[in-house]
Amino acid sequence: MSGNIFSPTYMIANLAGFTLIILAITRPNTTRWIFSFVFTGAAAFNALTAAYSPEDYLGYADIAGLAVYEDFINGFFSRHIRAIVLSIAGAQMFVGMSITGRAAISNIALGGAAFFLLAIAPLGAGSAFPSTVLMAAACIILIFKKKRSLTNLPLLKNRVADSGQM
């Protein structure tokens, strides 16, 4: 596992985070489907990795941004990798399958996604920080979009009206 913040993967992850914020504002339904795909795919990837090579997760200790994460990974987590990662994969599957559903369940899934994304941010380069913070912001925007349209805000309302989209 590499902690290189100049790697193409790291750069793409952060570009994706910025893009998801823009899409959350301009195309919320598309963004929900993207998050659904990402979380469902992550669930499958994590479940398979936990089943066949759980020790791969121990590499995150070396690049964690906080000592408490490094200590957790090398301690409790190292003794219970499968159980913890499979639990996370189950939660990711719930989010992935629920994020495009009805408002209440979608908001719960988006809240869970935002929480998870913020929780892994201290992994530093291991989570392509700050991409997870940007993605969490996109989730929060989507929750807000479900409750009240951002186009009702005066600044955006004028821009949308000027573009003929209202």
Describe it:
The relative contact order is 0.16. The radius of gyration is 17 Å and the shape is globular. It has helices spanning 8-26, 28-52, 60-63, 67-79, 81-98, 103-120, 131-147, 154-162. The model is unreliable at 147-154 (pLDDT under 50). Helix 1 (8-26) packs parallel to helix 7 (131-147), helix 2 (28-52) runs antiparallel to helix 5 (81-98) and helix 6 (103-120) runs antiparallel to helix 7. It is an all-alpha fold and 166 residues long.
Write the layout of secondary structure elements.
Blueprint: H1 8-26, H2 28-52, H3 60-63, H4 67-79, H5 81-98, H6 103-120, H7 131-147, H8 154-162
Helix pairs in contact: 1-2, 1-7, 2-5, 5-6, 6-7
Give a quick set of tags describing it.
single chain, 166 residues, mainly alpha, globular
Strand pairing plus helix content: what structural class? Answer: mainly alpha
- Helix coverage percent of residues? over 70%
Global shape: globular
Low-confidence stretches: 147-154
According to DSSP, the number of beta strands is: 0
Mean pLDDT: 89
Total helical elements: 8
Distance between the termini: 47 Å
Major sheet description: none
Order of helices and strands: HHHHHHHH
